Amino acid sequence: MPDTSEAPPEQESGPAAHTVTRIVLLAAAGACLLLLAAWCARPDPVADPPAREPIPPKLGTLPGFTEPGKGSAAERGSPQHRELWDDTTKGVPEVVRSARFRGDAVALIDGDRGLGVAAADTGRTAWSIAEDAELTGGGGAQYRHSSSSGSPLLTEAGTGWSALVEYVQDSPPGDTEHTASGIAALSGADGSVRWKARIDDDLPALESGGYHLMAMEAGTEVAVGTVASGETGRASREARSVAIDAATGEERWRKKGLWASAVAGDTVLMQDAREADLDATPEKSLNGGGSLVGVDAETGDVTWSLADRYGRAHAAATAGDTALVVAETASDNGAEEPDSAEFLIIDARTGKVLVEFPEDGRPECASDDVDVIACTVDLGGKGFRQVATWRAADREGTVSAHVATGSVLHGAWNGALIAHSGRRDGTAIALDPAGTTIAKDLQGQFLAGSDTHTLFATYATGSTDPGYQVYRTAR
């Protein structure tokens, strides 16, 4: 039977066939390209917007300040080179509220406001005293840590260094119904009393449990205590400050109506005590306080006043014979709480304003208590913070030429700033005067430091009381 199915057409060959194939393929490819172009041209509601060029930060400077020199970062080392001991070390306080290093020792205020001195390298306690405990060699005087006291007050005056403390005592001796207040110098070596001086002897005797001594400040040569006749945190019109020679315990002078805000070099910075809230923290101390005056630490003479320019002012920190002052203008003095405050650095000897930070700069500042006041501040008015560093000995300042990282300022160490990193793990960073990060992932919050040691508070998850760690530094 013959095959009736149609045979497939024979495939053409040769140049003509290849030409047809290429035309078909090119046409198909062109159609695909047109479809792809049309698809790409469709608007995409979720597409990222075109990338914008980053806005350069607006920076500024301060009159007379210069840009810091290069190479300073490598010279400053790390504030946490090697951990030495911490709150779990046997025999040390479980909690430290504040501290101050002196040579190879560290003075600590513990969680119950007791005072102790330990070896900076090991934490081994040399001596300690609890609040209301009797001072060694103090004739019945009891140690008292008032609410206005901050870090331990230490002085090199006399033989060896001493811790200056407040005390209360039955007055007169044997009269347990009344108390007296004063200042005592305790030996840094063993805590024994070197001298004690009553400073409320011209005030009416308080009932037992009352307390005259309201605040105390100290410098290298003088301790100044403020007393008041009232039993509350508010000083009365009878408030006065008494200056005691830090080496001998002898009274130098007393001033009515003034209370000590700080001691800078040979000058006591004092505030009008008639309305001052002596229990206020430094950042709140403008509330109700008067203006600032400078008093010669040797003679008690008032040498200058800021009252003609600022109705309220407070010394927030000192470095050498200069001071960081928080102030508001005299015209705003009637306000219960200042809406804004000015930050200044003044010459404590003359009251001359050396540095004025811009009012909207929102500076955060810290001092090493020796020579440096360092701040992060918005000098350009656009939220970009720079590092401004003031050195008292040289009367010179520098401003970083770029934006500083870090959020909350913790303190100053060896000319550098310790600031919170802004990370959730709670670490800190160290910034040099150029704003360069010289150490990162620092554990905890800076509390105290020296050239050789630092102490950081640490916060465990769920804990209300901080722990702490003591480190050897690297330079």
Automatic annotation (TrEMBL):
Domain spans labelled Pyrrolo-quinoline quinone repeat: 182-357
Disordered: annotated segments: 50-85
Record InterPro entries: PQQ_rpt_dom (IPR002372), Quinoprotein_ADH-like_sf (IPR011047), WD40/YVTN_repeat-like_dom_sf (IPR015943)
One protein family per Pfam: PQQ_2
Annotated coiled-coil segments of the chain: none
Name by which UniProt lists this protein: Putative pyrroloquinoline-quinone binding quinoprotein
Taxonomic source organism: Murinocardiopsis flavida
